User: Fold these one by one.
Assistant:
Number 1:
Amino acid sequence: MEYQVITMKNRIDADESLGGLCFAEAERDLPFPIRRVYCIFKVQAGMHRGYHAHTRNWQLLLCPYGSIDIIVDDGKRRETVRLDDPTRGLILHPGVWREMIWNQDDSVLCVAASEYYDANEYIRDYDAFLQYRKAPGADPEGKRS
Ligand code: T46
């Protein structure tokens, strides 16, 4: 499957009340440069988002607060990765379908992305995604050079 689960480098203070800090550096800890960051917040438990793949975009997904399940689908298999610890990160390669399920109210999803936002590099139709997986050089939207 074209994803990795990583443990972010972290510094947990000996004094538990001071909590912890975790981090990753682009192109050192992550296999891509970071051009964009975004967060998804104030989502109610039980809600689903996503339902798309990217043709170019690499992403690191983090859940700094709460619990979110990420379903990753390569067109043949579907696997679920639970993000419920701030130090646990999910690197999604381009070309995988993702769905996100909120397990807990107000869980926060933070994402570092390799690309600027470009609606044209999303595949939002599952049948088009399956076609794309069969012929990754082909453009399901007719928009890639
Ligand atoms: C992804 C998952 C994990 C922007 O204008 N700029 C942005 O950088 C982003 C990410 C989104 N948008 C707009 C596009 C839509 O009008 O924000 C709206 C909501 O985006 P979307 O429905 O794609 O949100 P999700 O939660 O389904 O998916 C998002 C990311 O779009 C996607 O890249 O992998 O989070």
Number 2:
Amino acid sequence: MSSPIAVKTLIVGSGPAGYTAAVYAARAMLEPVLLAGMQPGGQLTITSDVENWPGDSKVEGPALMERMSEHAAAMGAKIEYDVATSLDLSKRPFTAVCDSGAVYHAETVILATGAQARWLGLPSEEKLKGFGVSACATCDGFFFRDKEVAVIGGGNTAVEEALFLTRFAKKVTLIHRRDSLRAEKIMQDRLFKHPNVEVIWDHEAVEILGEPGEQGVTGLKLRQVKTGETRDLAVQGAFVAIGHAPASQLVEGQLETHLGGYVVVKPFSTETSVPGVFAAGDVTDHIYRQAVTSAGMGCMAALEAERFLSAEGE
Ligand code: NAP
């Protein structure tokens, strides 16, 4: 293990919350180090067009994240392409150990680890992951050229994935367990107008059919939620888009969490249950979960870290 690197502010995560925290912390002369994690840039790097980032009527997710990274670096933040494998918040300085062997001793920590896709939890889904089952249309859509695919879910992600897949697939069937979507109206309009999209309402997928290997996914067994009737739908790809779960494993048992792992913060603040540790973005936000709200929370976290350290110095 290498000798510990002392930092005033360690930012864990590189989505809009992490990079915004880095911009603000750097400008506050906290010389922040940002650990970019397993998926530098976070969830927006596996999305297509972003149309609700203020100032950009349309920007590609990966390009937006690249700009945020450059911005943070230009302000003086140190971006490390490393993954925190453990974080000890039991005493200060807090200790982070990274995949590379680097160890950080941090006066303050900003946790911005985001969220990761949720799965249905079916054994057949697990068996066929990588053989036609995916949670990322932008990563895997290309493999479904001229095929028929299904998307499961009814939120913004599901609708975005379905529309994106129409670029490749000859038919996209959206399967939703209720009779209305929770996606933004503008997205719903686009979906309903698309000639290659069909929506199957009030159905859930109870099994994904097929075999791993050459054959892959061949279909879905669907159940009508009101009548209980089942039927098979022939598809070669199944995209699961049923929401996200907070990536709070690093702080499990150390910070107060609720609602299935979201880190609890004080109202109108990013302060967690441990003084000196702040949480921003999807790891704590179970309500809005937008790039712009995450960025706002990243800003709050950096301002609060700076105030926390200044108060100690008084
Ligand atoms: P979400 O809004 O939580 O929607 C999840 C969907 O999956 C819901 O329709 C839900 O059904 C369904 N679902 C959940 N568990 C299920 C299960 N076990 N089986 C079948 N269906 C299930 O999640 P999201 O679409 O990933 O979006 C997450 C957040 O990111 C939201 O705040 C969203 O607005 C935001 N987002 C924004 C954009 C954008 O602005 N362009 C793009 C992507 C995501 P019910 O409706 O019945 O609950």
Number 3:
Amino acid sequence: MTPTHEYSEKLWQEALQHFPGGVNSPVRAFRGVGGTPFFTQRAKGSRLWDVDGNEYIDYVGSWGPMILGHAHPQVVRAVQEAARDGTSFGTPNPREIRLAQLVREAFPSMQKIRFVNSGTEATMSAIRLARGFTKRDKILKFEGCYHGHADALLVKAGSGGATFDVPDSAGVPADFARNTLTLPLNDFAALDTVNWREIACAIIEPIPANMGLIPLKPGFLEKLRKVTQDNGALLILDEVISGFRVARGGAQELFGIQADLTTLGKIIGGGLPVGAFGGRADVMDLLAPTGPVYQAGTLSGNPLAMGAGIATLEELSHSGAYEKLERRAASLGDEWKKIVKGHSVRIGSLFCTFFTDCEVVDYASAKTSDTKRYAKFFHAMLNRGVYLAPSQFEVGFLSLAHTETDIEETLRAAAEAVGKL
Ligand code: KE4
């Protein structure tokens, strides 16, 4: 039975009066797939319920943070306990130390760390720090990688930029973009065309997940690490998605490569607003108040957000958590590939299917995907109670709360949905 969405439709009309495009973040507007977004009433484990009572198996997980599943009892308890003692102090507090310990244990390259309130703040601050440390203005990113919406990084960006095909955002002064060089992903020869002596930093998603999921070719990250090291440029690994997702120590643990600076977000906040950047102490100590690079934040280190992050990372430290996640993701991924024709990719609990016949190795090949076909698949799945990312250029996120029953229901829905294409 096709679900009804009367109350979501009513709320949507009101939302359009308040918010540009009816949303507080563009991808939520369903522009990439058409139709009206549903309004979520509540979520628990692997499931979302919308305001009309429709239930969905959730493969977006708030875009990454909900690796334990929604409303995990330990996370809820941590937030309640913290709130009872006050919601913000604007002073140092013990919870920020505990979260820093948990993050630094997992990321040894983060000799010093600073908490902020989003992934965007983390990457924006890391870029400023890299420029301050190297005294160079130019930065380098890769086409289709998304690092949040700071001006310098909205150049050939992924995520919303990829979805709306407006990679260079309006409102970014031309001379900002002039200092941001972009290269195609996985293009070894392109790395040799750069005058690295003038580059402050290269920033990359070590597991690119904002133009769909596109693994780096073997050796690409190693070459980027070497060429930055050899020329005094910093390597910033943006692990906002991959951190504590693909391994406890993120892609750096998987690939055995140390960043000069790392940016984190999503999972480390357990669903509350947290970002972090950190790395070499000689670089981080340039930050105010110890150095000349200014960075600040009223709610940085917020006790509730720290509490949610601590509970999440402590749950993830239980033995077998990542093995269980991998088993669950493999049982979905293996069958999914057989059912959903296209170019399917899975890296741990991240997955994506490009609706294209060609091999996807970079932004240009990702853009050959048939977004109309993806949109039909998305809605066919949604009508069957499975919520995938509302854009071909995002990824699916599996959580520890997804059960074998969820996966059986998902695969059954996928087989029916493919038949409708
Ligand atoms: P936030 O500012 O949205 O917390 O983080 C920005 C960011 C930085 N780096 C990476 C690798 C990211 O994926 C993100 C944000 N991811 C998108 C989803 N692809 C957030 C969803 C949204 O924009 O609503």
